[in-house]
Amino acid sequence: MDTMEALLTRRSIRQYEDKPVPEEMVRQILEAAMMAPSALNAQTWQFIVFNERERLDAIAEVHPYVKMALQVPVGVLVCGDLTKEKFPGYWVQDCSAAMENLLLAAHALGLGSVWTGIYPMEERMTAYRAIAGLPEHIIPFGFAPIGWPAQQPKSPSRFQAERVHYNAFQE
Fold first, then answer.
1. What is the secondary structure of the chain as a DSSP string?
2. What is the pTM of this model?
3. Rounded to an integer, what distance in angstroms lies between the CA atom of residue 72 and that of residue 154?
4. Cα 152 to the center of its chain, rounded Å
5. Domain 14-151 carries which CATH code?
6. Alpha carbon distance 60, 132 (integer Å)
7. CA nearest neighbour of 51 among 74, 70, 71
8. pLDDT tens per residue across all 171 residues of the chain
9. What's the CA gap between 170 and 160, in Å, rounded?
10. Measuring CA to CA, how many Å separate 19 from each of 16, 23, 112, 146, 152?
């Protein structure tokens, strides 16, 4: 799959087959995530890979939009590491780029995933901190369930010419 195809066909997957994901594929996905750009190349991310059924089930209980964690064999928690920041506050952008790379890599490998938000919702952050045993300087940012898709959602182009402005914003 080439880059443009991956970008234009990736969709959020919320239904999965009951099938394991090989460890090597998880490693490839994480390698792609870690190739994301970051402010001053600080790479302010940490990744928690969940592959224990008990923890994935616990995640489904604490996050209202992650019930699909009950179906997947693996999930990745993308976290910001405040000790690695060179520009305070940019960890959010760094982790966003890493999450998008993760989603695209999963799709390119034939897997499905979905970005489920955690930060800045305190209740969700507290719950993920407890499940993953995170220290205070590690901020849970987003969670991506990963598995073999049991659905193939399609959508038309989302390009909207009226949202493109050249040189200055125009009403």
1. --HHHHHHH--B---B-S----HHHHHHHHHHHTTS--GGG---EEEEEE--HHHHHHHHHH-TT-GGGGT-SEEEEEEEEGGG-SSTTTHHHHHHHHHHHHHHHHHHTT-EE--EE-TT-HHHHHHHHHHHT--TTEEEEEEEEEE-BS----------GGG--SSS---
2. 0.97
3. 21
4. 19
5. 3.40.109.10
6. 14
7. 74
8. 999 999 999 999 999 999 999 999 999 999 999 999 999 999 999 999 999 999 999 999 999 999 999 999 999 999 999 999 999 999 999 999 999 999 999 999 999 999 999 999 999 999 999 999 999 999 999 999 999 999 999 989 999 999 999 999 999
9. 14
10. 8, 13, 12, 11, 16
What lies within 8 Å, CB to CB, of 98 at 6+ separation is 33, 34, 36, 38, 45, 78
Q: Which residue has the tokens 């038309």?
A: 156
Q: Which amino acid is at 80?
A: G
Residue type, 167: N
* Structure tokens that stand for 7 in this block: 């970008």
